[in-house]
Amino acid sequence: MGIARTILLAASKNDILNHFATNRAFVKRAMKKFMPGEAPEDALAAAATLASGGRGTVLTKLGENITRPDEAVAVRDHYLGMFDQIKSRKLPAVVSVKPTQLGLDLSQEACAAHLDTLAAKAAATGSFLWVDMEDSSYVDRTLALYSALKAKHACTGVALQAYLRRTPADLEKLMPLNPVIRLVKGAYAEPAHVVFPAKRDTDIAFFDLSVRMLEQAARGKCQPILGTHDIALLDRLVARAQEIGVADGRYEIHMLYGIRDADQQRLCGQGRMVKTLVSYGTAWYRWYMRRLAERPANIWFVMKGMLAG
Q1: Which of 111, 189, 194, 215 has its CA 20 to 30 A from that of 304?
Q2: At what angle do helices 285-294 and 3-11 cross, to 10 degrees?
Q3: Is 70 among the catalytic positions?
């Protein structure tokens, strides 16, 4: 792991820096590269704009590791309202939630009940619910939640992280569910025995896992979601999908708001199904630092904001 990435991931856990950053205008300006604003309305407006260009959106309210049951209920109710907004505005948008936002640290049973409520709402409103993946300590619990959820609700998916050494085995265990899987590279600070420390190894793992999912998609056994901004890697995977007969609608490409926008438009124009992940909310600091750590060169955008402020 590079020094800059290590520093940024460590900084993401620092409460003093969190307080400093979220109260500084220049940091908020730099943050807007990755999210349209803190309010739900900002996210919904961005979703409408993206829809006009043919892209769907994945909406997520930032925040994690809530500490009280009433906070989990508030998050659940917020997303229930977002599903209603998506339907009323006729947006090609879906929702993604972290299990710790729904109280996984407090009670797996209560978290499962909240997810069940949200999945039922997603089905009723013609949308979709993503179960996001957090650090490696949550993988077993998150996969157990998803397995139970998918047995009841087809309109649900889960994220897997290519940099985790365990992910190939996790993928195989999920295959009997005919899963919907968003594969990402991974953005948490983890020890070397848990993850591939070298970027090259993660890239290889991402390609191999994606090919495995595409092969299953060709048999109608899986819906792969390729969550990466690595355009060369995506082009190789799109070519492989075409080689093995996976139609464009059988897989999707997901990228973050504000990153590779021209490439997102290009891929969409080529007939690929592209969705943009749009985040919102006031609890953006930890998420933002992880985004910077994925590509430390993005620190330049912070510096530009600082100079402008």
Answers
A1: 189
A2: 170
A3: no
